[in-house]
Amino acid sequence: MTFTPETEQKLQAIWSRYPAGRKRSAVIPMLMYAQDETGQVTQEMIAEVAKRCEVTPLQVEEVVGYYSMLNKQKMGKHHVQVCTNIACLLMGGEELWHHTTKRLGIGHKQVTADGLISLEEVECAGACSWAPCVVDGYEYHHHMTIEKLDQLLDSIENKVQ
Amino acid sequence: MFNEPHPDEVRIITKRFGLPNSASIDTYLAHEGYVAFMKAAEMTPEAIIEELKVSSLRGRGGAGFPTGLKWSFIPRDNPKPKYVVVNADESEPGTCKDRLLIENDPHQLIEGCLIAARTIGCKLGYIYIRGEYRYLIDIMDKALAEAYAHGYLGKNIKGTGIDFDLYTHSGAGAYECGEESALLESLEGKRGVPRIRPPFPAVSGLYASPTVLNNVETFCSVPAILRMGGQAYADLGTPKNGGTRMLCVSGHVNRPGVYEIPLGFSMQKMIYDVCGGIRGGKKLKAVIPGGSSSPVLKADECDFPMDYDNYARMKTMAGSGGMMVMDEDTDIVKVALRTMRFYAHESCGWCIPCREGTTWLRKILTRMDEGTGRRADIDLIHELAKNMLGRTFCPLGDAAAMPTIGFVEKFREEFEARLRETVVPVTSPDQLIAIG
Amino acid sequence: MSTSTAAPPTVVNFTVDGRQLSAPPGTLLIDACKRAGIEIPAFCYYEGYSLQAACRMCLVEVEKMPKLQTACTLPVMEGMIVRSETEQIHKARKGTLEFLLTNHPLDCPVCDKGGECELQDMVFRYGAGESRFTEIKNHEPERQWSPVVFYDPARCILCYRCVRACNEGMGVGALGVTNRGVVSEIAPNMVDHLDCDECGACIDICPVGALTSNTYRYKTRPWEMQHVGTVCTHCSNGCKTTLGVRNDEIVRGNNRDRSGINGEFLCVKGRYGFDVSTNEERVTSPMIRINGKLEAVSWSKALGFVAEKFRSVSTAGGSFGVVAGPHLTNEELFYLQKFTRAGLKTSNLDHARSGDLVTLLDALSGKTDALATSDDCYNTKAALVIGSDLSQQHPFLAFQLRADVRHHKANIYTVTPGPVREAKYSAQSIEVPVGGEFDALRNLTETLKGEQELVILFGDSIKGQRVRDLVEWASGLGIPVKYVCLVDYSNSRGAMDMGVMPNLLPGYEVDPHPGMSLGQMLSHETLDVLWVVGANPLRGKTLASKQAFVVTQTMFLEETSERADVVFPSASAYEKNGTVTNVTGQVQRLKAAVRTMGAKTDLEICGLLAKELGLAVEIGVWSHDVVFKEIHKSVRGYNVPLPILITGGAAATNPVNGRVAVDVRIEDIQSAGDTLFTSGELGRYSKLLTSVPEFPGALYKR
User: Fold this and answer.
1) Which end of chain A has the least Cβ crowding within 10 Å, N or C?
2) Are residues A30 and A88 in the same domain?
């Protein structure tokens, strides 16, 4: 499996951080960066990471099933994550979640028909003092309101057109 | 993003926050950066550990284990390589402090690691950062590159003869990896399932080798301790509860934020002075004092000096410093449900009581929240939580059980108010399926 | 343990439920209790495999420890005071069972495991029969992972026994765990199916009905079966197997009672290879070739026909050749050799030889205790495998070595012509072409001198002079060395011991009138009679003699029977009583589990022929226990303690210790190179063995 030169460079940098014979350590970070490129973890990717990290594909598969940020189904170009954990719940996180599902017409871990946006109700994202929070990909948006969320979604949709 | 500082704060580890380019090595060096490490290089490991013991620094990740003692457990005559691992898998609901420490002052963390490495004779370390904090990984990577460029990492650091390499490591979304042995499993590329202990990481940690593993804030406190001296640091707090810690206040207060306060600071003062009181002039109902795992406190229990011993006296815990404040309108059943949904989602599934218990409780609480609870459910929730308590493989089961027991015991009337006359036994299957 | 030189173990004293107990330091509390007859319940704990502490059933109270402790991870400590059955503990166990049953389907009435389910037993014991769970259960549909393995995630209690049995026990690692939390489940290595040994160890070890076997599922309830303890005869390792028999049909093979040398180990053949006996191609009637076609005839007609022919050839001074199969029992082999030598007055007698034990015995002449048993393979501090893909050809011995590495940190060395599984956990693995073994051995010499002891297992590439060279090289190591001469079949060893060889009588006594070897018989242009008992020598070979009258005793019409003039239907190993001797020289009892219409045991067929020829008095009664008595009395090395045999145990035979100076004819020694999924001439008649996806080692991939 081949990656873009940027991703490849990143993967090799990650791989080189671990002592010889301990390359299995690179499995999770490598999957994270490889997934960023493809939007999902594929069987081909599992096989590739397994080969590079000197483990069996099953050992990679076990990891993919475990971690909630590793997705086997294809996510949208923008993966919008709404936190509804306690601190956000207290500050209106659930309302944001319901608003988003209604506006996009998709639910948890679903993708819009055009593949642009996927949605996930996530656990505490670590923005409690600036709640509620929405994360677009890896980008945090704090003190979210329905208006600000609409602006965010508008900008995502407009960027494409 | 960082809130305005408050005059009651004692800013030891956040003192560089707000400086221009606070994350850069130049700023760091201009403000006592790496001074503590150079000092440590001259000290014996025993002396460093002694200084930490005098400081009475306790782990800031949640368990509050004395740091000096933890470091002293490393068998230094063990021929295996030794490792330093930073737990930056900040995931305890209510907690958002490590994020700030990395974002605003990454070199302070690097220096803390360097001192640990010098103490235990370690040449390699990893900073395990939760996958969601990708931007922090980038900040940290940049800081590490700067440190290498300035000779504070790599071979023969600043002529001390000390070699140390430090790298970031991305997690991929798992609360359980905040538990130290699960984190090590994850760092080894496996499922984040905790290990059987003993042996503890100090003896058999990363790659079955002696490992110092601490929270970001703990490592960040070390340089200050060496600079100012253990006793001076200890004197900031109360006896046996030395120094300062970061408190992440969220919820219904006027000025939520992360504040560095000395241990033993009054909770009342924290809520009403530092955080400006309850939003909209409402009344305080309850506080979850130390992250979602800590049992809730009712309004009338929220006046005590916040140090480890007093949290324990209140039958709750300081935890990770995630203080969630709830006003009189808060729906406790909803909070209890959301808490249990979290634990059911994050349970690694390894042991039976946690795996099945959290899910069962989630299902009951879901019904309760939807108004199809039965009177018997209230006692059932309480009893099931007790059946998990102390019987699970790792602390996650306790972390799920303790707050649940607290909610039911302290706010029973709210659960009872949710009961309706007509009882519908079960809800639709769709609504019972957990997120994830 | 063979040569332990450790200081005498000190003892730890502790108290459980008021009883004073003691155990060696390091003993886990759960084991120490078990030895004292105190059962501590557990799902995940499994002796011999890594610790999990996952099921939380073994929680006990330990004084001075605030929380309940898992007995499966707690080593006994001096002065420790333990309570294993208190109200608090009962409540905890009951609570855990109640949790476990929330998502368990409770389909016990149709579940294969019903009646022998550990979860059922546990619920019965702790009374968690009443559930307060009124929510909807999580459910996932059942999956088929291979022709034999089915997985039902809903029933799975996640004890991870299967994962460990596959990874640690078998060295395969085809099972893992995927997903997280309550939706966690066991995952196969090929996403939706398995590519593995298909040994079924995962099914066997499953405490509930989550993993089920295609040959058994929904066929019977456990209490409707009879259990017959016998020996698997698909390879030379001689694993004890307990066959579950229902209505004269074998429906299951396992060894849950761990009664034999193999504990509960079985490979795919031992667990599923029994279907050869019900193959519809089985010969069920004697047949005589009439007008070029084999026609079914009565037993008396066929026996009379053969006797008549034998008599006339004998009278005319013609030549006989007798070939026996290495699957036959010792009694059959002994009887046949006696028939041949005393009745037919010839030593033209042989079997398909697959290892040069004869030269090994000769080379070891005078040395005592130099032949390793299967126990030695588990206890030795070091082992050297030469020229064998052990995991494929000798799965039980490979299992022993793996366990030795896990439990005793043994060092394994391999010298093979291709990659082998042992390389994964070996101290050193060397690949050399056949013939280059000694170069590799010389490279290992210095390393091996540093070992305390060594077991050498060698295959058919070491024969003749090379066996002597090996023994000489090993003597130079200066450490105690034991040997296993690897042979192919369930009674290859017995065939040699019983003198089914042209130049050796039973007990390795040199035959004063040696006969023709198998190769010589086949190329003898005027051979008059070829009598083949349970073998197929004409597979890929031709019989030079056009005039030869060929008689076979067989289960199937294979190549030799296609050339035969008379065919007798013989019973399979599942259908007869007797004894067999495994690769490490342990003799065990074979017990008939089922009967097949039409077939007779080879012993009976030989006996009936003897009777027909009027030789019955001379050769003796053809009853297996009578013949065994004679073997026990007369064959050197077989004077074994009878109680061991009678109770289904394995008795070590003591082979000859003296010169066996004969020409072994190394050209006739050749391993068939069976894999896990082949079984000499029989494997192809097992539908199951031919259906499972192959996972052969590269060495013997053909």
Assistant:
1) C
2) no
Give the range of the structural domain holding residue B405, as residue numbers without chain letter.
332-432
Could you say which of B345, B356, B376 has the minimum Cβ distance to residue C99?
A: B356
Query: Which of B72-81, C371-380, C411-420, C655-664 is least confident?
Result: C655-664
Assess if residue C150 is contained within a domain: yes
User: Is C174's CB within 8 Å of A58's CB?
Assistant: yes
Last residue of a domain, one of B291, B308, B327: B327
Query: What separation, in Å, do the N-terminal and C-terminal C-alpha atoms of chain B show?
Result: 30
- Lookup: tokens for C310: 């034998």
Rg (CA), chain B: 22
What residue numbers bound the domain in which C624 lies?
A: 287-354+491-574+597-638
Query: Is the domain of A82 the same as that of A123?
Result: yes
Residues in A touching B256 (Cβ below 8 Å): 128-131
Tokens of C449: 């001198």
- Given a contact cutoff of 8 angstroms between Cβ atoms, the answer to whether A83 and A93 are in contact is yes
Domain boundary among B186, B215, B236: B236
Separation of alpha carbons C240 and A139, rounded Å: 63
Pairing of strands C411-416, C382-386: parallel
Do both A125 and A104 map to the same domain?
Answer: yes
Residue C468 sits in a domain whose CATH number is 3.40.228.10
Residue B2 C-beta-side C-alpha neighbours within 13 Å: 23
Chain B interface, best mutation among A36, A62, A86, by max B CB count within 10 A: A86
The CATH number of the domain holding residue C537 is: 3.40.50.740
Confidence at C674, pLDDT banded by 50, 70, 90: confident
CA distance B26 to C238: 74
- Whether residue B200 lies within 8 A of chain C, CB to CB, comes out as no
Residue in C with minimal Cα distance to A42: C191
Interface residue A55 vs chain C (CB under 8 A): no
Q: What are the residues whose beta carbons fall under 8 Å from the beta carbon of B149, sequence distance 6 or more? A: none
Closest to B436 (Cβ–Cβ): which among A68, A87, A128?
A68
* Statement to judge: residues A86 and A138 lie in one domain: yes
The reported pLDDT for the residue numbered A161 is 54
Kindly determine whether residue A62 and residue C177, on different chains, have CB atoms separated by under 8 Å: yes
Least CB–CB distance from C56: residue in B346, B391, B425: B391
Residue-averaged pLDDT of chain C? 94
Show which of residues 109-148 on chain A sit within 8 Å of chain B, judged by CB atoms.
Answer: 109, 121-131, 135, 138-140, 142
C123/C181 same-domain check: yes
B353 and B281 in a common domain: no
Contact B387 C55 (CB under 8 A): no
- Please give the pLDDT value at position A63: 98
Q: Residue B434: which pLDDT band, with cuts at 50, 70 and 90?
A: very low
Distance of CA C226 to the CA centre of its chain: 21
> Given this model, what pLDDT does residue C108 score?
94
> Does a structural domain hold residue A73?
no
3-class SS of residue C245: strand
Distance between CA A139 and CA B206 in Å, rounded? 31
In eight-state DSSP terms, residue A76 is P
In this structure, the answer to whether residues C273 and C124 fall within a common structural domain is yes
Mean pLDDT of C687-702: 58
* 3-state SS, residue C477: coil
Segment B252-264, tens digit of pLDDT: 999 999 999 999 9
Same domain, C271 and C306: no
Other beta carbons within 10 angstroms of residue C563's beta carbon come to 16
Same domain membership, residue A59 and residue A84: no
Which of B263, B351, B271, B346 has the alpha carbon at shortest distance from B311?
B263
**Same domain, yes or no, for B230 and B277?**
no
C161 CB neighbours in chain B (<8 A) are none
Count: domains in chain B: 3
pLDDT tens-digit readout, B46-72: 999 999 999 999 999 988 899 999 999
